[in-house]
Specification:
Largest sheet: none
Helix content: 55-70%
Number of strands: 0
Structural class: mainly alpha
Radius of gyration: 26 Å
């Protein structure tokens, strides 16, 4: 197993390098880079030179694309444009910028945001609690509901219970997350009907004045609707996955043998089927968490006015804040690759009979 893990870890480096290279190359062809953004602000909103010269540090601009000619730069001194390019690191050739960026990232030096003049790490840490809250709670609730429901559907396969729950699951899966979030706001957050839950934020304005119990209740009160909206799609998928996994195992020969030995259905289900059927489900927990963590955060955060990583990434992409874009891409790309290895280890933990060592992968 050690050799397999070592091979997977070694593959992380070229994979991550390829991800960063492709995205870096694409930014070279995207119009409206950070220099053009600043020129547009100067031409349209007055002098922002003070903000710019007090902004990002020297080697932060090793990320992103550099424009050779800037639309709208007529009338601005060439020295000023050259100063901006040097400040953002865009005066260097693309290859040099990319290699410098990757060298900094290998040392986990992500530089500073062009727009906010603070460390990318500090910015991510500031926004991360919101996204972790949505991802972790949504994943846990999805597992708590989907596993018992999926097992029940497998046991009652073809029954009336299986039919109507499948209908509910299909409808839940078909509803877009953002539409369901808006529906929750309209129904339960003072939109048109009931004012039961708050419409925005993770805490109340007087959160610091509340007792410990009051803070927990206030927190749960605020996250209820966002978590429900985030859970709806993953809940449907996981339920059907659980059902199909149990059905596959129930139809195998060892189950018939166990029944022939006189074991009752409960003993067969939880003594023999459960461990094998839960293999793919338990091992998929890290991947599901990451998918929920990244997948629906932008829309949910926007609708419920939650300032998390999804909203941060969107604003950085629109504003061409390349240190934030590439810094978060590198970090979460690395996390995603490591989670893939963790999922394999989970398979072995759940079922020691699995031996990745003997595979040529």
């Amino acid at each position: 197993m050690g050799a397999y893990i070592l091979r997977r870890l070694l593959l992380v480096v070229p994979t991550l390098f390829g991800i960063m290279l492709i995205n870096f190359a694409l930014t070279q062809f995207v119009p409206g880079g950070p220099i053009e953004q600043i020129i547009a602000e100067i031409n349209g909103a007055g002098d922002v030179t003070d903000r710019i010269t007090g902004g990002a540090g020297g080697d932060l601009g090793s990320e992103g694309g550099g424009d050779v000619e800037y639309q709208g730069a007529r009338g601005l001194p060439p020295d000023f444009i050259a100063e901006l390019e040097e400040q953002f690191g865009l005066d260097k050739p693309p290859v040099e910028r990319f290699l410098l960026m990757m060298w900094n990232y290998l040392q986990f030096d992500f530089g500073e945001s062009f727009q906010r003049s603070i460390s990318v790490v500090d910015l991510v840490l500031e926004k991360m609690p919101v996204s972790i809250t949505l991802g972790l709670w949504s994943t846990l609730i999805a597992y708590m509901i989907s596993i018992p429901l999926g097992i029940r559907k497998a046991v009652k396969d073809g029954s009336r219970f299986d039919t109507w729950t499948s209908g509910v699951i299909i409808v839940a899966y078909a509803i877009p997350g953002f539409l369901f979030a808006v529906l929750l706001l309209v129904l339960f957050a003072g939109g048109s009907y009931f004012q039961i839950f708050p419409a925005r934020g993770l805490t109340s304005p007087n959160f610091d004045e509340l007792s410990a119990v009051g803070k927990v209740l206030d927190y749960l009160h605020h996250i209820t609707l966002p978590v429900i909206a985030s859970t709806i799609a993953s809940f449907a998928t996981l339920t059907l996955l659980t059902k199909n996994s149990f059905l596959d195992e129930i139809r195998k020969q060892y189950v018939m043998t166990a029944r022939a030995k006189g074991l009752n259905e409960r003993q067969v289900l939880y003594g023999h089927v459960f461990r094998n059927a839960m293999l793919i489900i338990i091992a998929g927990f890290p991947g599901l968490f990451i998918s929920v963590f990244f997948g629906s955060s932008l829309i949910i955060e926007t609708i419920f006015s939650l300032d998390g990583l999804g909203l941060l990434g969107f604003q950085a992409a629109v504003g061409r804040d390349y240190p934030v874009v590439f810094g978060t891409l590198y970090f979460f790309g690395l996390v995603g690759l490591l989670v893939g290895i963790l999922s394999d280890l989970m398979y072995v933990f759940v079922d020691p009979r699995i031996d990745f060592e003997s595979r040529n992968t």
